[in-house]
Design a protein that fits this description.
With 359 residues, the protein is mainly alpha-helical. It is built from 16 helices and seven strands. The chain has a three-stranded antiparallel sheet with strand order 1-4-3. Helix 10 packs across helix 11. The chain starts with a strand and ends with a helix.
């Protein structure tokens, strides 16, 4: 694997060293591990049962099309929660102390149509190492490039109104990833100019197999065995993913792209002018950090700063650890950025509007 790298010009601050000590002390004093606790395991079981249960009820063919559509939406939301709460932690080796269990659970990305292999490269290796750095972080860079593109007259005109059309595009996010971006990344063997990789024989077999398996269960079997028309299956799938995609965008995008989003630039010598610790404080905004409900449903994506600083810790511990982070950051004179759930959504909306004005 070839990686485009940079270096942080500043060493880690005393605040980060103290934070790591306090985080370690938190686990030591309570005699607990950094992995999933019983509550998260029970939640994982509920999510998996909901996924299989809703699919089984749909395939029983005993319900009206509207009831089946409702079950499909439940299936989609549960699949989203599987990604947030199980596969994401497992991909960071944060769900279990057993690496084999983590690898198995990370592979459940296939249930929602994604590729666990591509996700680990795109999210763990690319995004976490390069968050919000132009031409390094694919997620942020691609987002800004689309919003500010002026390659032709039509695009230039459209790009003035991202606050109007982008929320609609977000609802197609999972379809875009499942049927386009995963394939582009896997078969081009690259993520922008930052990562170049070569999948092994095992991955070259598993990638198309998992996609075919997903298509079989999501499209082929329902079309063959349900008493609804083929186009109703497609419409149900579209609505299911539009709901799930909108919820995903609501949670996953605002932490890095609020109104005052920061995009640090690597200088000509390959350096960023700050440290990794301050970089994550600058480029990430938390929301609803004390909300047990938001944390429970979205796997701690709302407490995103602590996740970026300690990605190998399960989201079960993010609420108390974020309080430790906030206290430490303020004690040493750094800024900890946070808002409410709706504040995060509104701030991202204003970011989109700002991008339109710049274009």
């Amino acid at each position: 694997m070839k990686v485009k790298t940079f270096k942080y010009k500043n060493r880690e601050e005393q605040a980060y060293r103290v934070l790591k000590q306090r985080v370690n002390q938190y686990f030591k004093e309570r005699g607990i591990t950094r992995f999933a606790n019983p509550q998260v395991i029970i939640k994982a079981i509920i999510i998996v049962l909901t996924i299989f249960g809703s699919y089984a009820l749909i395939m029983s063919n005993h319900f009206s099309p509207m009831v089946m559509l409702l079950l499909a939406i439940i299936f989609g939301i549960a699949s989203l929660m599987l990604g947030f709460n199980i596969a994401h932690d497992a991909a960071h080796n944060a769900f279990s102390h057993n690496s084999r269990i983590n690898k198995l659970l990370a592979g459940t990305m296939s249930v929602i149509g994604s590729s666990a292999y591509v996700w680990k490269i795109r999210h763990n290796l690319n995004h976490h190492a390069n968050s919000n750095i132009p031409e390094y972080d694919w997620t942020a860079y691609a987002h800004r490039k689309i919003l500010t593109s002026d390659s032709n007259r039509i695009i230039a005109k459209l790009s003035r109104y991202p606050h109007i059309y982008t929320p609609i595009l977000y609802s197609f996010y999972f379809i875009f990833l499942t049927f386009y971006k995963d394939f582009e990344i896997f078969y081009s063997n690259r993520i922008g100019n930052a990562y170049h990789f070569k999948p092994g024989i095992k991955e070259q077999i598993l990638f198309p197999f998992s996609k075919l398996l997903y298509i079989t269960f999501i499209f082929v079997l329902p079309i063959l065995y349900l008493s609804v028309a083929w186009w109703q299956v497609l419409v149900g799938y579209l609505i299911m993913h539009m709901v799930a995609g909108s919820i995903f965008a609501l949670v996953a995008i605002p932490p890095h792209l609020p109104e005052d989003a920061v995009f640090p630039v690597v200088d000509s010598e390959g350096y960023l002018s700050h440290s990794r610790f301050t970089h994550n404080l600058y480029t990430t905004t938390d929301f609803a950090r004390n909300s047990i409900g938001v944390n429970w449903m979205f796997g701690g994506f709302n407490t995103h700063v602590i996740h970026h600083l300690f990605p190998n810790i399960c989201h079960a511990h993010y609420i108390p650890l974020t309080q430790i982070l906030k206290d430490t950051v303020e004690e040493y004179g750094f800024e900890y950025k946070e808002t409410t759930l709706w504040g995060a959504v509104w701030s991202h909306y204003k970011f989109l509007k700002k991008m339109g004005e710049r274009s």
